[in-house]
Amino acid sequence: MTELSEKEIKRYSRQLIIKNFGEKSQKILKGSTVTVFGCGGLGCPTATYLAASGIGKINLIDFQKPELSNLNRQVMHFEKDLGKKDKSVSLKEKLQQINSSIEIESFSLIIDENNIGMFKNSDVLVDCLDNFHIRYLLNRFSLKEKIPFVHAAVESYYGQVTTLIPDKTPCIRCLFPNAKDKKGEFPIIGPTCGVVGSISSMEVIKVLTGIGETLLGKLLTADLKYMEFETINFDRKEECVDCSEYHSK
Questions:
Q1: Count of CB atoms within 10 A of residue 51's CB?
Q2: 25, 162, 179, 194: least CB-packed within 10 angstroms?
Q3: Are 139 and 173 in contact (CB under 8 A)?
């Protein structure tokens, strides 16, 4: 297992003293690769906490450029970045300033069937997207390659998170069989992204280290307007067009 340097022991000292975490879990994080799809409202806080926590390699995927209307929630893109560089590049630059000891790769890609295979060596896939077309593509990729998949989504004051493990849990299409992408702009306030993104990053850390309980077969919903959280159990659908193809293969 990868060893920790003296600098890393100092950097992560507050994590190392957590009961049942210690150097063992920190070494697991250092040896892990996490791929974050989407570098906007959710991707910014999720990737930031993953980088700060010591994930050894983070892949960032987003081809869009920051716009002024993004800045109320996409907190790692600054005014100086507007229209100049893709979000994956912009976010990489900020994360490198937070933690120079980890590896960060940016990919300015529109994910499709032809290029998603680039990320088959990931230990966890993180869905920080805003559309179901690519979300379903990630779902099938996760099932095919047996890679854990953390899903998160937000709108207005509301958010949701679940963790999907091939062969152990239902998949995202079991939960949302025929979800349609919404047209036009959707409402969102920044703190919703911060809360849900933080939960998403914690799910990734738990998946990697085995600490605690993850949201397996459970959808956590958050209503930040009234500060209400609810966990909803959901089951695998035998007729699911995605996981019925890959289940137990």
A1: 25
A2: 179
A3: yes
Q: Is the dihedral of CA 107, 241, 217, 143 positive or negative?
A: negative
Q: Rounded to two decimals, what is the model's pTM?
A: 0.96
Residue-wise pLDDT for 50-80, tens only, equals 999 999 999 999 999 999 999 999 999 999 9
Q: Token pair 């300033």 is at which residue?
A: 97
Neighbours of 234 (CB within 10 A): 14
- Dihedral class, residue 156 (left if φ above 0, else alpha if ψ from -120 to 50, else beta): left
| 8-state DSSP, 182 | P
In the chain, domain spans: 32-246
* Rounded Cα distance, 93 and 106, in Å: 9
Q: Are 151 and 161 in contact (CB under 8 A)?
A: yes
DSSP state of 128: -
Distance CA 114, CA 157 (A): 35
| Euclidean distance between CA atoms 198 and 222, whole angstroms | 12
Q: Taking the mean position of all CA atoms in its chain, how far away is CA 185?
A: 22
- Give dist(CA 9, CA 238) in Å, integer: 47
Helix (H, G, I), strand (E, B) or coil at 233: strand
Give dist(CA 181, CA 40) in Å, integer. 17
Dihedral of alpha carbons 104, 108, 113, 114, sign: negative
Instruction: Locate 243 and state its tokens.
Output: 């996981």
Nearest CA-CA partner of 31 in 130, 159, 123: 123
Query: For 80-135, what is each residue's pLDDT tens digit?
Result: 999 999 999 999 999 999 999 999 999 999 999 999 999 999 999 999 999 999 99
CATH of domain 32-246: 3.40.50.720
Nearest residue to 155 via CA among 212, 93, 224, 105: 224
